[in-house]
Structures are given as C-alpha cells and as structure tokens.
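Help!! Second protein's tokens look totally different from the first
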Amino acid sequence: MGGKCPHRRVKKRRYSHKTFRRDKFLVKGDDAVYDELKKTEGETVALPLDEDLPGMGQYYCLHCDRYFANVTVRDEHFKTKRHRKRLKIMAGPAPHTQLDADLAAGMGMPDNGPKLMST
C-alpha cells in the first residue's frame, strides 16, 4: 500500500499541454472581441503584413482572435465546434464588462434615492 497516485502523471501532462497554455494566455476576453466586432461591422480593412504572425497575419478569425498559416487551415477552423460556439456567444447579448462587475460588487455610484427637500 502507499506510493504515488497512478493518475499523477496524467494531471501534469494535461496542464502543460501546448493548447492549454496558448489558449490561457493569448486569447482576448469576450468583451474585447465583442467591441471589435461592433466597431468593424460595416468596414472591411485589409490586414497589414506582419512577419511575426502565422501566414504573415493575413488569415485571421475575428471572432476567435486567432491567426492561421493559410486559407485551408482557416476554413477548417470555421467548421469546428469551438468556432461555432464562439459565434453563438458573440451573436447574443453583450458580455459583462468591468463596469458591470464593479456595480454588482457595490463599488459604483451610490443610489441615495430622490431628493425630498431642496435647500
């Protein structure tokens, strides 16, 4: 009896996995992406060339905030479950912002009610 847990290695591998790390640090929040979508709804602007990004920064998914190496990879991404979920979230009501969180925590403007008497 005793010894190490047999599932210990699986847990370590799960947290050090490449996609977990990438998704944790590089994806913008829902509110930032939602604001960009509303800002660029009617405009289509050509993306600038950037050597540091995959595919020179030309193949971009605005909803998921991801760059892709070529058109075929981007088109495959459009068919994934993750992208469809993200589209559904962005098509719905506006996500919560920091102002909403502050007001819910009671850190906003105090509401003292209407003034009864003026001096």
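Here's the second one for comparison:
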Amino acid sequence: MALVHDHSSLIILILNQTDLTPASFILNGIPGLEDMHIWISFPFCSMYVVAVVGNCGLLYLIRYEDSLHRSMYYFLAMLSLTDLVICSSTIPKALCIFWFNLKEIGFDECLVQMFFIHIFTGMESGLLMLMALDRYVAICYPLHYSAILTNDVIGKVGLATFLRGVLLITPFTFLTKRLPYCKGNVIPHTYCDHMSVAKLSCGNVKVNAIYGLVVALIIGGLDILCITVSYTMILRAVVSLSSEDARQKAFSTCTAHICAIVFSYSPAFFFFFSHRFGGHTIPPSCHIIVANIYLLLPPTMNPVVYAVKTKQIRDCVMRILSGSKETKSHNIK
C-alpha cells in the first residue's frame, strides 16, 4: 500500500510540475511608488519621444546626406537603430502600466521582450566598442582610414556584433523557459528582465545567475577593454602632435563618442553592482528606476549629443532648416 501511495504521489508531482508554466505574468511597475506612476510616466514619455524623434532624425540625415556616408556615421546609424529597438521594447509597455494599469504580459511575449532587450543592449555595447576602434584608426592611421574601414568591413563587423548577441543571449530564453514557476506570476518591474523572471521560479536558478554573469563579463568586459585600449592609443597619438590646433581637432572628434560611453555605461555599472552588492540596502523602487534609465538614457541622449558635438551633423541640420525656411518664404511670395 505504501508503494502504491508513493507511486501516486510521484505521478501527482510530475503532473503538477507540467502545470507550473504560467500563461502570463503581471508586471507590477515600480514597487512602492504605485501612487506616483502617473507622475513618473511624464519624464518617461518625454524621454521616449525625444529618443524616437532624435534617432529617426539621425537615420534620415545619414541616409540622405552624402557628406555623412562614412564609417563613423554608418556605425552611428547602427547605434540609432539599436537604441530605437531598446526603448521601443520597454517604454510603450511601461506607459501602458502607468496610464491604463495594463499589467498583464503573456509568458512567450515576456520571453520575446527579454530576448530583444538583452540582445540589443549587448549590441549597443559592441557598437560603442566599434566606434572607439573607428576613432583609433581615424586618428592614428588617417591616411589608411578609407582603405581599412570599407563598407564591406563595416557591414561584416556590424553583423558579427549582432550575431554575438544572438549566440550569447539565446540560451537565456531556454534557461528561463525550462524553469518551474511556483512563486506566483507577479514581476516587480516594468519589463521582463532575465533574473526578475527567474526569481519567480521554485527551481534551481544558479545556472541562470552564473550564465548571466558570464555573458555580462564576456560582452561588457571585452568591449570596455577594447575601448580602454583604443583611447589609450588615441591619447598617446594626440599628445605626440606638435600643433595645439591639431590636438584640439583630433580630441574634438572623440567628444561625442566619449559622452555616449558615459551615458551608456554609468547607469549600467550602477545597475550591475547595486544588484549584486546593494540588494538589501537600496530600495527596490530605486533598482527599477535605474534599470529603466539604463535602457532609456542612451537612446535619449545619444542623438542630442551627436547633433550638438558633431560639426557635420550640425551643419546638415542647419542646412535643412534654412532650406525649409527658404522654401516656405518662396512659396509665400
């Protein structure tokens, strides 16, 4: 009788295990600040509008302005497209939570969102690294710049950066999908982050945590190392220039890229280290806000910085604006 009872319990356990994948999750927004969601939504929405308009504007300029058909601006176009995907994968859903209380997200939809977020944040890091290498070649090997960074090379390294993200991030989906979820289906977040979803599981998530850390070190660590080496070599080359004007001009070509690096990696570092070392001292609401800034700040600021700091882009914008005014005044006459 005991054997039959144990066998029946095992069957029930197996049947229950198969039902532990929820049909949907509930994204709960920013925990502890539910009453302020409507106010928090305004800066989120404003930044999202600036990000979409700014990055679409950059893509338009780079597509139609012949003077911007160079490797530096092709990489910038890739960065703008990546930023559009990142912010559009997260902010519309966050605004639906803040404005309409639409918190439900399907299980598969959650995995797709997680997949896109992690792939394109990794690609953004890779593109910043490629742009640093572009500045290194432009300043240290100016005579060979066009020969080294051909359109074919640009396309290949851009594709390689995307495929790197796909190969490294795809296992996240399977590692998350295999888990049994018995701790409810409420995610205290505005989007489906890998570990936020995994923490709802009653299974062993150690593999997920270790793999996430390894991927972060591979992508972020390698890219930061290449950026550091590139700018070390750039600094040595700039310092060795005899003319003050030449040094100023060489350094000014890197200003916008340095700002983009700061806007991308500063919130990323805070988010990464606060999760691992400040989990009990930093309020959950602060974690969620920083996580959203981490995804929203670079897409918002990158087009603004490049429009202000890059003379060629600034000249193109002014030429278009002055041309539209001339056209308008001509039509009035």
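Reply: Different proteins will give different token patterns, so don't panic. The radius of gyration is 24 Å.
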